[in-house]
Amino acid sequence: LRLLPRQRYLRAERAEVSALERKRNVLCCLITRILKVEKQLHIDNLVFRVIDACQKGELGPGLQFLSFSCHSVDVLSCVLHLLNQGYLRRQEERPHVLEY
């Protein structure tokens, strides 16, 4: 019987998963904050505003990031997550417009 040292890549994977979860949480909060103010917004405009806020570091109070890298795929994934959770909804006559 031989004991093997703990695998380092497992710790790296956990750190990456944790970082991705934090990123998703920040993006979801940012999407919600923008839509609370705007009430409704075209999905393209929402994606642009979220990416712009991330690049400028305007993530809101308590989030101390100089800049936060995100892509449209990240934002759209969070939008779908929030739609499935019931926090956002689409207008029936205009499904490309999101409402809070």
UniProtKB/TrEMBL annotation:
Matching InterPro entries: Cullin (IPR045093), Cullin_neddylation_domain (IPR019559), WH-like_DNA-bd_sf (IPR036388), WH_DNA-bd_sf (IPR036390)
Domain Cullin neddylation: 19-96
Gene3D superfamilies tied to this protein: Winged helix-like DNA-binding domain superfamily/Winged helix DNA-binding domain
Protein name: CUL9 protein
Organism placement in taxonomy: Eukaryota, Metazoa, Chordata, Craniata, Vertebrata
